[in-house]
Amino acid sequence: MQKEKKTVIETSGITKIYSMGGTEVHALAGVDFQVDDGEFVAIIGASGSGKSTLMNIVGCLDYPSKGTYILDGVEVNKLERNALADIRNQKIGFIFQGFNLLARTSALENVELPLLYDRSGNKYNLKKRAREALEIVGLGDRADHHPNELSGGQQQRVAIARALVTDPSLLLADEPTGNLDSKTSVEVFGLFQELNAKGITIVVVTHERDVIHYVKRVVELKDGLLIRDELQTPRSAAEDLERIIAAEIDAENAAENTVVGADESAENLAEDVDEDVTVEIVKETPGGSTQDINELAV
User: Going by C-beta distance under 8 Å and a sequence separation of 6 or more, which residues neighbour residue 220?
Assistant: First the structure.
C-alpha cells in the first residue's frame, strides 16, 4: 500500500491587503495553494502579480490579512512573532538571490549559523552538521574558504548548504539564479533536482522562465490571483549542462583551429612571397654585360 503524502504547505483564502495613502491594495485576493511533501514547484508571475507577497507569507516573514496558512501541520498565521521565528528556523531553509553570506566568515561558519539560532533544544555537533551539508552540495573541500574566494555558483551552493543544515521541511528559494549566468543557473537547478530526488520539498519563486523547465509543477499568479497550476515533466538540468559544456569545448576547439589555420596561411603566404618575388642584384662585368650577383658568388 502506497504511503499517503504529507502536505507541507496549505493556504486557504489567503488575502493580503496593504494600505497606501488611504487606498487599499490587494496584493493577494484569496489564494488557495497546496504543496505536498517531495514536490518541486516554481511560483512565477510578472512584477506586481503577488508572488513575492505569497513567498513572504509561505516563508513566515509576514501574516496574511485574511485566510489560513498551515505549514507542516502547524497553523502559523495564529502564532506570535517569537514562535514564528522558531518555525522559520526549524521548518524552512531560505535561499536568496544575493546569497546573504557573511563576508568575514568561512563557508563552514556560514553554514553553521542557523544551528546557532535553534531554540528547539536539540544538541548538535555544529561543525559536523555544517560539513555534511557542504559535502551534500559538493563543497566539502571549500569549507575553509571565504565568500570572496568562491565563484557565484559556489557561493549559492554554500547558501543552499546553509538552508539544508537544519533538515527543514521546505526549501524556499527566492530568485536563486538572479545573480548567476546561464550555465551556473543550470548547475544550481541540477543541484535542486538532485536534492528533490532525495525527497526534499522545494519551492522556487522566480521571474526567469528559462529555469521553470526544470521543476515538476508551475504555479502562476496575476493580479493577486492564482491563474495557472500545472504539472509537467521536467527537463534534466544535468543533461543540459553536459550539452552546454560540450558546446563550449567545440567553440574553443573551433577558435583554436581558426588561429592555427590563420598562422599556417600566413606561413604559406610568406613562403610563396619568398619563391615568387626575386630581387635581382646585378653587377656589371668588364665586358659591359650584367650578371646575377648569385652567379658571381658561385
Answer: 43, 44, 45, 49, 226, 227, 228, 229
Give the whole-angstrom CA distance, residue 108 versus residue 298: 80
* DSSP 8-state secondary structure symbol assigned to residue 211: S
Alpha helices (H) along the chain: 51-58, 81-91, 107-116, 126-136, 152-164, 182-197, 237-276, 293-297
Nearest alpha-carbon partner for 191 in 205, 220, 211: 211
Residue 116 is which amino acid? L
pTM of the model: 0.82
Q: Find out whether 294 and 279 touch, Cβ atoms under 8 Å.
A: no
Q: Cβ contacts of residue 107 below 8 Å, gap of 6+?
A: 101, 134, 139, 142, 143, 144, 145, 146, 147, 150, 158, 161
Closest C-alpha to 142, from 129, 155, 160: 155
Length reported for the chain: 298
CA dihedral 279, 280, 283, 289 (to 10 degrees): -160
SS3 of 170, please? strand
At residue 270, the pLDDT reads: 63
Tell me how far apart the alpha carbons of residues 84 and 65 are, in angstroms, rounded to a whole number. 16
* SS3 category, 16: strand
Give yes or no for residue 56 having a pLDDT over 70.
yes
- Could you tell me if 131 and 106 are in contact, meaning their C-beta atoms sit under 8 angstroms apart? no
- Mean pLDDT for 96-114 is 94
Q: Report yes or no: 86 and 49 within 8 Å, Cβ to Cβ.
A: no
User: What pLDDT is stored for residue 38 in this prediction?
Assistant: 96
